[in-house]
């Protein structure tokens, strides 16, 4: 059996070539991501103005509306079928519902229709258009009990959800 000999210099040159080419691939991927993010629907004033609400029987109700959920392909999803990923990672619906959405074209990849057997690639932008119906909340006003430069205390109705934010 023959031996393969490689000099330290050859090893270092090969390593730097690999390092250089992997940097190019990484930079290209970052540019692709940036370009795709520019196409990704964001939470702009226009997005918020798409919805409206009305008061009925003491409740504030939001008219049903369409919303586009978007995400980029995670590294662990690359090479997997889109239907398998959605069935496993997004459990809000059964796999059959995601299959229906893919076939109907409301669940897309890079804003293009794909087959249920489509295998995800790096930087694929997944978009799922859903029809939202929000839970009604009370129309009672929110009153400020105390406010200073460190804290705001409010008396809000229990049906209005909150999200804590630490600054």
UniProtKB/TrEMBL annotation:
<dbReference type="GO" id="GO:0003723">
    <property type="term" value="F:RNA binding"/>
</dbReference>
<dbReference type="GO" id="GO:0000455">
    <property type="term" value="P:enzyme-directed rRNA pseudouridine synthesis"/>
</dbReference>
<keyword id="KW-0694">RNA-binding</keyword>
<dbReference type="InterPro" id="IPR050188">
    <property type="entry name" value="RluA_PseudoU_synthase"/>
</dbReference>
<dbReference type="GO" id="GO:0009982">
    <property type="term" value="F:pseudouridine synthase activity"/>
</dbReference>
<protein>
    <recommendedName>
        <fullName>RNA pseudouridylate synthase domain-containing protein 2</fullName>
    </recommendedName>
</protein>
